[in-house]
Iron-sulfur cluster carrier protein
Amino acid sequence: MSTTRDAVLTALKTITDPVSDTDIMSAGLVKALTVSDDGAVRFVMEVSPSQAELYGPVREAAERAVKALGAPSVSVVMTAHSAPAAPPDLKPQRKAEPSGPQKVPGVDRILAIASGKGGVGKSTVASNLACALAAEGRRVGLLDADVYGPSQPRMLGVSGRPASPDGKTILPMRNFGVTMMSIGLMTNDDQATVWRGPMLMGALQQMMTQVQWGALDVLIVDLPPGTGDVQMTLSQKFHVDGVVVVSTPQDVALIDARKGIDMFNQLKTPILGMIENMSTHICSNCGHEEHVFGHGGVAAEAQKIGVPLLAEIPLHLDIRLAADGGAPVVISKPDSPQADAFRAVARQLVADGKA
Ligand SMILES: Nc1ncnc2c1ncn2[C@@H]1O[C@H](COP(=O)(O)OP(=O)(O)OP(=O)(O)O)[C@@H](O)[C@H]1O
């Protein structure tokens, strides 16, 4: 019984293409397949010249599979195909693609707020700093890029979906003199968002470049905790003027903070300083001071790596109540010592030309 064409096709479908990970038929590698009356099989395998070696074993496996059908002879010819040349670009004097970190039009400075661990108060620091800088008369933007737990809408008391009248640009929200945009405002509250690398990078770029930030002295970026795609993309694609690293004094938080600092050093993004949050607990009833998470660990770390300690923010009920209530302590209790701690950082940053 001579080999049928269908049987050959079925046999070839069992051979895997190592490049596309499908079978060699589906990958379109087999061309000009003929099965003569006496069962002799011939076909061409078309592969790119650079991969000819890789396909040697594939060709042998294909031959064996067809021979196993009882074909009296199998002839496989490997030919090299070359990718068609790209059509010429006829656009005269095409502008070169910008390389390296870019500035966001209208935005004078970008200041990132980072932390190694989650829950250390990075977003609380970002919202209070933003409001304190606005109170100093700076034009401030706040981008909540904490994709894993966007909290700025709640902290700044902003809700609703941002409008996009032209379908291309996004109108940011505004409260307490701060222009704000959050990835949390673009997703559905009840939908857990699974962000994959490229999606994250796209979303960040969109937030930076498609939001109508207007003219800003400083855009504060509240980063997700850790050392992931958002941090890398921000530093690589945009000109970040400085990073403030927030940590609690605990060893675990400090270890992670150190990793973050190493990453920014590698990315050549300047570290402006560290903030110790939840530094001491001040009882809201009696004013008694307790070092719940220890005290001074961040100061020691900052000294070790040679960056300034910008503030030690106490662990205080008012800070949490204010954050959860939609008006940061800088706004809700502007004369409190807690608000003062944030305002001092804001003034320092302005004095240093960093915000
Ligand atoms: N100094 C503080 N005193 C009291 N509560 C605080 C203080 N700092 C932060 N908190 C509270 O701790 C919780 C976590 O803070 P926050 O959301 O700012 O942390 P985060 O580092 O941004 O976390 P994540 O990155 O996981 O979103 C919030 O409920 C916040 O109100």
